[in-house]
Structures are given as C-alpha cells and as structure tokens.
C-alpha cells in the first residue's frame, strides 16, 4: 500500500509543511542531498515538480520550498556552496543553476537563477557521491564565477574533482591532493598517489572526516585523515564497498548490503578499527542513497516505489529490556520511573516492576510486592500487617524496634488482622496488661473472673491453688467459700460470735468473753465485765488502771501510757503517790519537779538542768543529745567556752589564724608563729625568710639583710652596694650604682664613667668628660669603636687632633693625598676624588678607581679607543657582529663578505622570517604581498602567513586564522560562527554592527553553531515566542513539556503550583500523575479497574472485581470470574448455578428459578442428585 502523501500543490513559491505529516514521502527518480545545509532536493510524485526541503538533525522536515525551473536532478548532479549561494552542475550540461539560500528562506523572489557555462567549459565526469565538482577548461578552472590558472606539478592532463572543500582536498587524476588557491592560481601543496582509485567515499568517525579509496595495485582500501592527508592504519574487517554501489552510515555504524559494521577511530595510534555485527534493521526497505554529514535521512526504495525516509525509521531501533526509546526515537533510555544502575534500569524507589513497567507502589511505600501490598514504607511511615503504610499504627498495634513496622502490641496475638490480648491478659488503655496471677479471664488488672485450671477464685478476685485460711474450695464453681462456724463479711470469713480462729478452726472464747483472738485473750467481754489489758474479763480494774467511760475496758490512769502491761507516767510527768505530776517546763524526763534530765522536742538541756529553745552565747545545740555544748573550736572552762589555740574570736565565731600561726588578731595578721616558723614583715608565718630578709637572733622573726633598708615590704641594697646571690656586695670604687661588682653604671660625685664601666676623676686620651651625664665621651670628630675613639671617616689624626681629608675622601694618606674616596666618588690618578671620571675614563665599581675602558688603553693620562671600535660620546663601542663599517652599536653600513644587511642595520647569513634577498644579494627586503611595518613584514590585509608565505584569506575576509577560517570580515560583511564572511546573516542570526559578527537573535543562545531559542521560549516561524506561564520548555505557546521549579506539568501540558484533585506529584517532583489506584483517561484520573471512589479516595472493590458499586457490592467481575447473586466474584459458579452466555455471571441452571438467592427447581420438577428432573405422574413438588 502506498504511503499517504500529504504534500499539497504549490500555490506560491515558498511554503512550509509540518514534518510529522511528511516522512516517509513518495518521490520520483533521483534525489540530491545538500550536506552543508542538511537539506534535500527531490522530485515530488504528486505534481512532478522539484522541491528543496530543510531538515533538522533528527531527519524531520522543517521547511519546503519550490524549485520551479529545474528540469532534471540526476545521480551525477554536482553542487557546491559559497557565500550561501548553492551551485548545481549537471553531467555534460550546457548550463548550471544557482540558488540564493538567504533569499529563498526569507521568502524573496528570484532566488533561482539559470546560468550558461563559459565557451567550451565542461563538468568533470568522474563520480564521487554527492560531492562538489568544478568545471575545467584547458588549463583553467572555472569556480564560483572565477577562472583559476592550474599549476599542478605531477600531471599534465587534468581531471579535477573536489573531495572536501573545507580542507581544499581534490582528486586530481590518480592523486588525492591538497591545493591552495591564491591570486587566481590553483596549485598543489601535498598529494598521495592512489593507483587507479575507485570507490572513493567520505566517512565521519569521532568528528574526524576520513576519505576511503580502493587501491587496485594493492587490492585493498586505504584511509586518509581529511585534515592533514595523513594515511591511517586499518585493522579488523574489510568494508565491502567494491561489492555494493551504496552504503549507509549512522553515527559510527556502517550498513552495507545485509551487513553492519562498527568503526572506531583511535587518534593516539592513528588507526581505524572495523568490527562486524548483525544488521539490526528489521525494515523491508532497500538502501539506495545516503547523507554524508548528519546521516539523518535516506533515499530508499521498496519494490518499484521510491521514498524519502527518516533513517531512524529505516534502522527500526529497538531497546533491550528495561529500556525505551527517547522522544527522538533514536536513543535507548531508562524506562519511566527507573534509574540506570550497572547497565540495567531497575525501578525507582516507590515503584514495582509489573510486566516490564515500573508502576507506583501503594501510598507512602518505598518497596512493594504488588500495587496493593507494601514491604517497606517511606521514612516517617509504618508498615501494617495488611501491607499498607500509615503514619500511626492502628489500634492494638505498636512500632517495632526499627520504627518501620506495625506489630502486635505486647502480650497479644494476630487474629483476623487484629491483635486481641492473649489469655491471661486484659486490654487497659490500648495495652495488654497481665491479669492477676493464674487468671484466665479478668475484669481488671487486680480482679479475676475466671481462674486457670487447678486454681480457685477468691472473694478479692485473685486465683489461688489452695483457698485462704477460713475458706474452703468449691470443686464445682472453682470458688473459695467460708468454712464451718464462719460467716462471710466484707470479703472475709470471720468466726461466729464467742468463737475465734485458731489455725483455720473456730474455737470457743474464754469465760465471760464474746469476741476473742485465742482461748486466753478476749477482745470484747460480756455485759457486767471489764476487759483487762491481758485480755481477760474482770469485775474490777488492776493497779495503775481505771475504767473507761463505757465501763467495758480497763485503761491507763491520766498522764500515763501502757507499757509491759503497766501504765507508767508519760514523758514530762513523774509518779508522785500513784499520780502522774508534771516535770519542769519543756521537760520530758525529770528527776524531780524542778530538775530536768531530758528536754522536750526543739528544747535543749543547759548545764543548770533547765530547758531552753536557744543555747546561750558560745554554746550550740547538740541535735543528738539535745544538750547545749561548746561551739566549734571552743572548749568548756568554768561554764564558758573560749576559742582554742590557733583561733580568734570574730563576732562570736572562732575563725582560724593564718597558716602556722599560734596567736593572731585576724585571719591575715599573726602575732606569734608556731614553733619552727618565722614571723614575716607582712604578718605571715614562713619556714624560710623571703628574699632580701634574714632571721633575727631569736629565730622567730624575719628582718632586713646587712647593707639594706626596708622599703615597700622589701629590703633593697643601700647605695654603693649590689645584690649578688642575695647578699649586698660593694660596687667598684667611687661607684654609686653598678650592674656587677666590676662594672659601674653611675659614679660618685666628681667621678666620670668610662666605657669599661670604671669611675675616674679624669677621662683617658681621645675621650672628654660630659658634665651632664658624668660619662667619658669621644672628642670632636671622633666616634666610639671597640672602646676607642678613632677619627671619623674623612678625617686623619694629626698630633692627637682629627684634621679633615681632601674633599669627598674617606681615607687619606695626608691632608692632600686621598687613598679611598667617599661613596659615589672615584679616585683619580692624581689622588683626588671625583663623582664622574674624566673623559675616556670609566669608574671601576669594585676598586672605586677611574680606569680605562676595556676597549681603551692608558696613554699620557688619556684612554683612546682600540681598533674595530667607534667613539660614542666618549665611549669605545664595538660595531655590530659581522660588520665592517658602522656608525653605532646597532646600525651597520657595510657587512663583511658573505653576510646580508637587514632593515634594522644588522648583518645576518640568512634573511629573517618574512624577508628575502635583493638582487645584489647584500640586503634583505620584504617578501611578496607584505609591507614593512615596525621593522617587520606582516602580510597585507586579506592575506595570512602560511609557512612564511602570504596566502590569501577566504573571500571578503580582512583577517583570518587559516585560508578557510576568517576572524575579521571586510566592510559590509559579517563573520559567521563557521568563520566565513557573508553579506546577510543566516536564519536565527542577526548582524551585530559593532563586532561585525552574526550573533543570535532575540531570546536565542548559540549552541553547536546554531541559535536555538532560550529556555522558556519556542521557535514559531523563526521568532522565539514565550512559553506559557511557569514553563521552561515547550513545543508551542500552549504545549509545555518542562515546568519551572515548584510547578508541575499537567496532562493538558500546562504548569500548576498544585496538582488538581485526583492527581499527585510524581517522584521527580516534575509532573502531576494520577493518585494511587487511579488511571489516566481523557486527561482525568478515574479510579483504576477494581477500585471505587469513596470520599475522593479509590477504595478496593471486592476480590477479583473490576467494577463495583461499593466495597462490598461488585457489578462486573474480572475476566475468568463470575458474578454471584450476592455480588461477589468466584471462578466457579456454586451448585445449582451455571455461567451465563457472556461467561460473566452465575445464573440458575436449567429448570431452576432464583428464589431468595437460591436456585430451586421449577414446579413439576424435583431435585435428584443435584439435577432438576421432571416429576413422575401423580407426584407433585412440595410447596415452597
């Protein structure tokens, strides 16, 4: 079936079609690919007209233009492009066409021109696939409207074919040749002989253009780097170009016939490695032509029909498992919601692989085993037993130790997805607390209602193996009940009246007793009797006892307490004639009514036998004995408490004296030290006197050392003394202050200090006394050096007086003869000092003497120049090297034989770079096409230095970096990113009048020699229009593909800050995707199959159900399941039911009718063995 042809008839000269409606397109006859502009010229099958289509790097048509006027494009049609002007040449044609690409793309008229060849000119006839062919006439080359003189060094008969225009590479006869074209001369630079070449092709490997040519002499293909014409080694397979007319290249893959080859270029080894692999194309198209540079589209045929086809459609690229094709359908990328790891694409966290797709796990889940069952929740969420993720565990569940799972609370067991408490435990505040010991069922943690086996329930709700005393076990009810002679009262079984419990038996009480605790101890007597303290019943109370107010018990007398069956007086009382009388005030125990022996609480006993709340001064209370005792650091003496030795009284407190002090008046001032310690001047006690002090004769105090006086608590030495190892030793004679016993620093009155530190009454020779400082100082014009006073520099000692040397002289032999001049002065032969040496002399910086120059000789106190030198302002300078005659050190006028005079006046054996010999072979002059400037010969404007010659730059170029790359164009021309010069910038570029360059237009940025629109813009008819709000990448102003940060792409290709209801943000935080258990349908997210929406949440339908009306009611089951009458889904219909004709529902079997969800046999039928059989005659079915 022929493809749908979407090209419409031409109504205007320029039109553009959408690429998605064009490829593959049916065409007629041959097609011409234009590699420089990634375009194609072809004849359409619908109207038989020729068209020019531009394509992007993915082989998508971006624009189509009419070429009405072109009659025939053949397989051997040749082309080339200069200044955006496309030249089309035909095999043996008489005319050629030019297409102004700028005008055509801009929609201007007149872009197609037809031009006749010059007389007798002809195109070359040697075919090289879709490459440029120039026109040759005799020994001239017609190219770009110009005629070039051909100067080829190795052949006479000329056949020229252009192989690569960027590097001026041509096939000239059997030679692959690199040429230069300057001054309208076509001349070879470098060539390689190919020996009867054939099958010449150009490949692109690792961005390096490589020429392949079959050499029939060696019967093998040879490979050459187009940039430098270097031959490359090849290893591995041999490409079978000889056996096939055409081939296809995609990136580094070569398709020839049914084979596929991979090419690898190793630049460091200058080698091409060729490996063979199976052809991955599954397409039935047959390859015919190809595109050299981009390899993005191809001309193929299928049967007798021809097509222009996107090469990616031909290759039919398929991806390995876990990979998918990208949007361009050219590269395998990881499937959605996955990440590349070790050459595979496992699903991202929060997704699961189901049939090769990464589908979302349940909400808040990181790892899951199905879309409804999670195995590991996200951080902050907990995994429940039914595989869901929650922020808080359900009732009766708790977090495990890892805080990732919900497990049954302690002392409970999982049952039907719940955690009821274990036997023997009760639910208390959502926790299982233990029942009383040995209890199976309890009503609280303290009260049991049913005991474990072999245990009995007490009245307190506890469980015991043996009932408590006074109770007996009831084997039927498993409860403890009261024993004989007992009655239950307040959860106990006391004995009846006049009985008491004895080892669990109720025995009779003593005589006259109603209630007792033993047979001898009564607790309540019968009427008319009194209960004595010993538990007997008496008619009269014993001694120290009296009747109580009820007249039923004997109690202690007043102010007494029971003790050992007696009633002694209470604390604070004393027995006086059988009655308890009070002790003194605040006294608990007394020996008489006036003398206390033990005071009451919060009172203390004084030495006088009284009780006080606060002890007298110098006494303190003893909390243990409750007696007033001496305070800390005090001792009792005559009923008072003075401070102990080594303490002093300070406002009633005994504070310690200073360390090692016996007697003191304060904590810092001692008056008498302890034995073995000395009293220092500051009132402290020390074991050794401080520095500058010594012991006194009593060896109890520290006093000043000899020859010193107390000053500010120190004992400095007296005047005329110095401290030497702690002793005050005398200074030198006549010295008041000294630094040592031999060196004085201040002399006594009428004495002067010498530099040796002694004191003299008269200063030594060369010194004089200074009356102010009292020091011996140097005399006039003298300076102290090494304890002496020699004359200063520039002076000489004459009879002990320092007389001045000659002017500018530091050292002199006499007052008129100098031997060493001052700095910046030089000694002349006359013994004087001068700052500038006399004419013909020069200064010697080492000796500071005026000497003859190295090129002069001393003669009669002058220094004339030597031979081969010239005098320059008094200096003898050498002429330049190899110079016979000169006027200065740099300018020669005549060179020696065999040397040439340069423009800067030097002599050289060979002219410098950019210069050549003149006709006399004695001078150097500028090379051709150059001009002298600053002693150099730079190439003229429009020329570039190549190997020392000035070669012409590209057309309309003033400054270039190579013959093919311009850096500054001529006036009215602009520099393109390809470093060519054009009068009009290409599409998407604009002219910069300042830099004279083609720069990107508004809202565009240069990338890979193109100017695509900036982020947030889209190209619409050549203008970058803004994308929709909050969008950074779009395909139109309304169709966004990537949103700004914090905005999310919706299904209608807009950007929102918050996803709509039923949508959530995806894991990459870029898109709105359907919430869990929802599926995208018509830009909405209804609940997925098997789920129903309840309060905006998709709840799961009953098991095996596709559509339901509630979580318990199914309406349509999954495939392979039947809907029952009670709205559930089962694989096999129950007995009496069968599947309906649609195999989706269970309906009543034959001869049955549904009644109350049952399928009962119809009337006149009876059920036999599960089948409804007709009733026999005279037998009727029972009523229903």
TrEMBL record:
Domain (EGF-like) ranges: 360-390, 392-433, 434-464, 508-538, 579-612, 656-686, 688-729, 730-760, 804-834, 878-908, 910-951, 952-982, 1026-1056, 1097-1130
InterPro entries: EGF, Furin_repeat, Growth_fac_rcpt_cys_sf, R-spondin
Domain of life, source organism: Eukaryota
Protein name (database record): EGF-like domain-containing protein
């Amino acid at each position: 079936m022929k493809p749908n042809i979407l090209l419409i008839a031409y109504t205007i000269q320029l039109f553009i079609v959408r690429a998605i409606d064009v490829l593959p397109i049916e065409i007629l006859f041959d097609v011409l690919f234009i590699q420089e502009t990634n375009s194609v010229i072809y004849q359409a099958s619908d109207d038989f007209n020729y068209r020019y289509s531009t394509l992007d790097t993915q082989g998508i048509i971006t624009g189509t233009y009419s070429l009405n006027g072109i009659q025939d494009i053949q397989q051997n049609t040749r082309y080339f492009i200069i200044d955006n002007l496309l030249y089309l040449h035909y095999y043996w044609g008489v005319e050629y066409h030019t297409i102004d690409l700028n005008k055509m793309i801009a929609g201007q008229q007149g872009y197609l021109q037809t031009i006749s060849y010059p007389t007798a000119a002809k195109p070359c006839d040697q075919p090289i696939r879709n490459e440029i062919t120039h026109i040759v006439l005799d020994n001239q080359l017609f190219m770009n409207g110009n005629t070039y003189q051909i100067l080829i060094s190795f052949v006479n008969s000329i056949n020229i074919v252009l192989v690569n225009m960027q590097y001026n590479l041509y096939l000239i006869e059997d030679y692959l040749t690199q040429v230069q074209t300057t001054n309208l001369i076509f001349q070879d630079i470098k060539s390689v002989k190919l020996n009867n070449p054939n099958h010449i092709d150009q490949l692109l490997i690792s961005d390096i253009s490589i020429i392949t040519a079959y050499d029939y002499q060696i019967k093998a293909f040879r490979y050459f780097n187009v940039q430098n014409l270097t031959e490359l080694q090849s290893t591995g397979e041999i490409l079978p170009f000889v056996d096939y007319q055409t081939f296809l290249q995609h990136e580094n893959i070569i398709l020839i016939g049914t084979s596929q080859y991979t090419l690898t270029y190793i630049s460091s080894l200058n080698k091409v490695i060729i490996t063979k692999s199976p052809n991955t194309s599954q397409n039935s198209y047959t390859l015919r032509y190809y595109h050299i540079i981009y390899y993005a589209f191809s001309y193929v045929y299928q049967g007798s029909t021809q097509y222009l086809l996107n090469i990616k459609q031909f290759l039919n690229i398929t991806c390995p498992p876990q990979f998918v094709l990208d949007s361009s359908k050219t590269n395998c990328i990881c499937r959605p919601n996955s990440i590349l790891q070790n050459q595979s694409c496992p699903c991202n966290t929060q997704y699961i692989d189901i049939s090769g797709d990464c589908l979302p796990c349940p909400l808040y889940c990181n790892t899951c085993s199905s879309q409804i069952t999670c195995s590991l929740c996200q951080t902050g969420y907990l995994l429940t037993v039914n595989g869901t993720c929650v922020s808080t565990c359900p009732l009766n569940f708790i977090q495990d130790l890892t805080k990732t799972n919900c497990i049954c609370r302690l002392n409970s067991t999982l049952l039907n997805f719940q955690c009821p408490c274990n036997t023997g435990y009760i639910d208390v505040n959502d926790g299982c607390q233990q029942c009383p010991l040995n209890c199976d069922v309890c009503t609280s943690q303290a009260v049991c209602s049913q005991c474990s086996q072999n245990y009995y329930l007490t009245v307190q709700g506890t469980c015991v193996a043996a009932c408590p005393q006074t109770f007996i076990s009831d084997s039927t009810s498993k409860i403890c009940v009261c024993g004989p002679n007992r009655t239950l009262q307040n959860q106990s079984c006391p004995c009846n009246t006049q009985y008491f419990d004895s080892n669990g038996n109720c025995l009779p009480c003593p005589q006259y007793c109603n209630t007792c605790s033993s047979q001898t101890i009564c607790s309540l007597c019968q009427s008319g009797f009194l209960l004595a303290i010993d538990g007997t019943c008496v008619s009269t109370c014993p001694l120290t006892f009296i009747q109580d107010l009820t007249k039923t018990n004997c109690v202690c007398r007043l102010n007494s307490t029971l003790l050992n069956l007696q009633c002694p007086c209470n604390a604070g009382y004393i027995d006086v004639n059988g009655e308890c009388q009070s002790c003194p005030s605040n006294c608990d125990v007394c020996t008489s009514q006036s003398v206390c022996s033990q005071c009451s609480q919060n009172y203390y006993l004084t030495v006088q036998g009284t009780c006080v709340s606060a002890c007298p001064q110098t006494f303190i209370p003893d909390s243990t004995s409750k007696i007033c005792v001496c305070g800390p650091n005090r001792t009792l003496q005559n009923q008072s408490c003075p401070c102990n030795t080594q303490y002093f009284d300070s406002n009633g407190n005994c504070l310690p004296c200073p360390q090692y002090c016996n007697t003191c008046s304060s904590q810092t001032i001692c008056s008498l030290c302890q034995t073995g310690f000395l009293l220092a001047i500051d009132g402290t006690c020390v074991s050794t006197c401080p520095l500058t002090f010594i012991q006194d004769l009593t060896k109890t105090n520290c006093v000043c050392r000899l020859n010193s006086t107390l000053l500010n608590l120190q004992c400095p030495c007296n005047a005329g003394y110095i401290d030497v190892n702690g002793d005050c030793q005398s200074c030198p004679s006549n010295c008041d202050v000294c630094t040592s016993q031999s060196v004085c620093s201040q002399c006594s009155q009428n004495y002067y200090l010498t530099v040796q530190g002694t004191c003299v009454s008269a200063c030594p020779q060369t010194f004089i006394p200074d009356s102010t400082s009292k020091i011996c100082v140097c005399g006039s014009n003298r300076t102290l050096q090494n304890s002496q006073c020699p004359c200063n520099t520039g002076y000489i000692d004459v009879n002990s007086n320092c007389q001045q040397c000659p002017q500018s002289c530091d050292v002199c032999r006499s007052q008129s003869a100098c031997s060493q001049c001052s700095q910046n002065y030089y000694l002349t032969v006359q013994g004087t000092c001068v700052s500038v040496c006399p004419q013909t002399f020069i200064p010697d910086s080492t000796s500071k003497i005026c000497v003859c120059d190295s090129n002069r000789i001393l003669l009669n106190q002058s220094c004339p120049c030597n031979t081969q030198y010239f005098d320059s302002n008094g200096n003898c300078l050498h002429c330049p090297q190899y110079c016979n005659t000169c006027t200065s050190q740099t300018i020669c006028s005549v060179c020696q034989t065999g040397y040439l005079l340069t423009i800067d006046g030097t002599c050289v054996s060979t002219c410098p770079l950019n210069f050549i010999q003149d006709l006399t072979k004695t001078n150097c002059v500028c090379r051709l096409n150059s001009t002298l400037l600053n002693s150099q010969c730079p190439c003229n404007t429009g020329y570039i230095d190549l190997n020392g010659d000035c070669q012409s730059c590209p057309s309309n170029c003033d400054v270039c970096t190579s013959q093919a790359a311009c850096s500054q164009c001529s006036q009215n021309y602009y520099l393109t990113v390809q470093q060519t010069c054009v009068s009009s910038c290409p599409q998407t570029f604009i002219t910069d009048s300042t830099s004279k360059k083609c720069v990107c237009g508004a809202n565009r940025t240069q990338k890979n020699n193109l100017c695509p629109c900036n982020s947030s813009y889209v190209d619409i008819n050549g203008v970058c229009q803004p994308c929709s709000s909050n969008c950074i990448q779009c395909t139109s102003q309304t169709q966004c593909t990537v949103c700004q940060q914090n905005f999310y792409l919706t299904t209608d290709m807009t950007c929102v800050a918050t996803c709509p209801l039923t949508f959530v943000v995806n894991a990459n935080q870029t898109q709105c995707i359907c919430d869990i258990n929802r599926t995208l349908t018509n830009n909405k997210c209804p609940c997925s199959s098997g789920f129903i929406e309840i309060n905006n949440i998709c709840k799961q339908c009953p098991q095996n159900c596709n559509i339901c009306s509630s979580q318990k009611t199914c309406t349509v089951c999954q495939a392979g399941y039947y809907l029952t009458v009670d709205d559930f889904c089962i694989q096999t219909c129950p007995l009496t039911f069968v599947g309906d004709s649609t195999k989706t529902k269970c309906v009543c079997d034959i001869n049955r009718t549904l009644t109350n969800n049952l399928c009962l046999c119809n009337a006149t039928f009876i059920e036999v063995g599960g089948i409804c059989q007709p009733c026999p005659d005279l037998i009727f079915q029972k009523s229903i």
